[in-house]
Design brief:
single chain; 500 residues; Alpha-Beta Plaits; Trigger factor, domain 2; Chitinase A, domain 3; 4-stranded antiparallel sheet; 15 helices; 13 strands; 42% helix
Length: 500
């Protein structure tokens, strides 16, 4: 637990809480001095070298209120996370944070947080529940499909002297216009396009079928209403297209030479055997994940859980944000993703509400099972979970454990591991039955996708490298408990600062 922040929690309607937090005077003073040192690095004051102005001089020169306000801005994220940890809540959505008055010397900082929290579940039957579990089957079609994907990767494009057909590629230049005037981003040169790929807006590719090298086409389209670029949404446009080449895809023959080129095998039989083995291993993992999800969803279906719509929508936004973050790590920007999808974040959030609702129900059930079965990860469990992180960081699990304890993050990691263990316990208790053998039971509609991972990164701050190892090493729990996000500058604070 944090020694710097204390909290009082009040439950509100609609699965929300108010957290009244108080930051210890010693912590306030420490942050004040840090802010003064940082500000002192930019001040020029006669008698002091640049960057060497002592904090007391900075505070006298700028005023305590100004420096304290800067300290609070810098500290808000850390204090918020500490308050959430100490309060023991599982937040959902963006917080509404309000600060009290700037404290006098030696007084604590106070602030309140109002935020949605994970709903509570009243468990029904959850021990020994019967759940369908399919068996792996040899699938020659899957092997053939993988062979075709490999052929496609090794395919070459050859220029042909004929009109383009569906599935062919064209090399083209184009200029897009609205009301006869070119628009930003509407011009391209030497663009390679597969006709029928659906890469471009509806109607564009179809109008190039039959075009030959040297042809000029006037393509008339209407941008979709939900198109990512607002200035183009719903607008009729024309594209002056010049086709310079028509290319056809040539696939390699499926033989021993192909097996060698595609994957380094001597024979095609060896390649098929390797694909079959990898396919079986992947299928076994898929079955495990599906069964785990279905067990959890069966327990959800037997439980009573009230999930307010406001909470569902907040979680839906979190799921969209997770998707955007993951794509950004893969090099796809948020703007590019929104343009490709032709939707804005609010539309995506509405579409994700069904999944968000089921995710919240799963989390509620897992938390209820942890409580009902008194499941708590031991120190040994934590040390074991930290082994991969310690190995990557070339340190010891005990050192990471101590850092987590010192930074106040150990309880979060213990809670995450306990929830992972609760899911594993439910799976162990469940009784698998062959598909079609179990009496028909109505399943929740939103069971199509498990949220990725049982918990967010737990070891932040001084143990930044110690992420949630258990979820990475074991099958993902079908529930996602977000770590407390450091809020953006959404907090309402006293306006006691000079012009910046």
């Amino acid at each position: 637990m944090s020694a710097t922040v204390s909290t009082t929690v009040t439950e509100l309607p609609e699965s929300r809480v108010r957290v009244e937090a108080e930051v210890a005077p010693a912590e306030v003073e420490r942050r004040l001095q840090e802010a003064a040192r940082k500000l002192g690095g930019t001040l020029r004051i006669p008698g002091f070298r640049k960057g060497k102005v002592p904090p007391p001089v900075v505070i006298r020169r700028l005023g305590r209120e100004y420096v304290l306000d800067e300290a609070m801005r810098e500290s808000l994220g850390a204090w918020y996370v500490d308050a959430v940890d100490v309060a023991g809540i599982a937040p959902v959505g963006e917080p509404d944070i309000n600060f009290g008055e700037l404290p006098a010397l030696g007084a604590p900082v106070t602030f309140t947080i109002e935020i949605g929290v994970r709903p509570e579940a009243k468990l029904g039957t959850y021990k020994g529940i019967e759940v369908e579990r399919r068996q792996p089957v040899a699938d020659e079609a899957a092997i053939d499909a993988e062979i075709e994907r490999m052929r496609d990767r090794l395919a070459t494009l050859e220029t042909v002297e004929r009109a383009a057909d569906l599935g062919d590629h064209v090399v083209m230049d184009y200029i897009g216009k609205l009301d006869g005037v070119p628009f930003d981003g509407g011009e391209g040169r030497d663009q390679l396009l597969e006709l029928g790929s659906g890469r471009l807006i509806p109607g564009f590719e179809e109008q190039l079928i039959g075009a030959s090298a040297g042809d000029e086409r006037l393509v008339e389209v209407t941008f979709p209403e939900e198109y990512g670029a607002e200035q183009l949404s719903g607008q009729p446009a024309t594209f002056e297209v010049t086709v310079s080449e028509v290319k056809v895809k040539k696939l390699p023959e499926v033989d021993d030479e192909f097996a060698s080129d595609a994957a380094g095998f001597d024979t095609l039989a060896e390649l098929r055997e390797d694909i079959a083995k990898r396919s079986e291993e992947q299928e076994a993992q898929n079955i495990e994940h599906e069964y785990e999800r279905d067990v959890l969803d069966a327990v959800v279906a037997a439980s009573t859980i009230e999930v307010p719509h406001q909470l569902i929508h907040a979680r839906a936004h979190e799921l969209v944000e997770d998707t955007i973050r993951n794509l950004t790590r893969q090099g796809i920007s948020k703007e590019m993703y929104l343009q490709i999808s032709g939707k804005d974040e609010e539309q995506m959030a509405h579409e994700a509400e069904e999944e968000a609702a089921q995710t919240l129900r799963r989390e509620a059930v897992i938390a209820a099972v942890v409580t009902a079965e008194k499941i708590e990860a031991s120190d040994e469990d934590i040390l074991e979970a930290l082994e991969p992180t310690a190995e990557r960081g070339k340190t010891t699990t005990q050192k990471l454990f101590d850092e987590l304890s010192k930074s106040g993050r150990l309880n979060r990691l213990r809670a995450d591991l306990s929830e992972r263990q609760a899911v594993e316990w439910l799976v162990e208790q469940a009784k698998p039955v062959a598909p079609g053998k179990k009496p028909a039971a109505k399943k929740p509609a939103a069971a199509k996708k498990a949220a990725a991972g049982s918990a967010e990164k737990s070891a932040t701050g001084s143990a930044d490298a110690a992420e949630k190892p258990a979820a990475a090493e074991k099958p993902a729990a079908a529930a996602k408990k977000p770590a407390a996000k450091k809020p953006a500058a959404a907090a309402k604070k006293p306006a006691a600062k000079p012009a910046e």
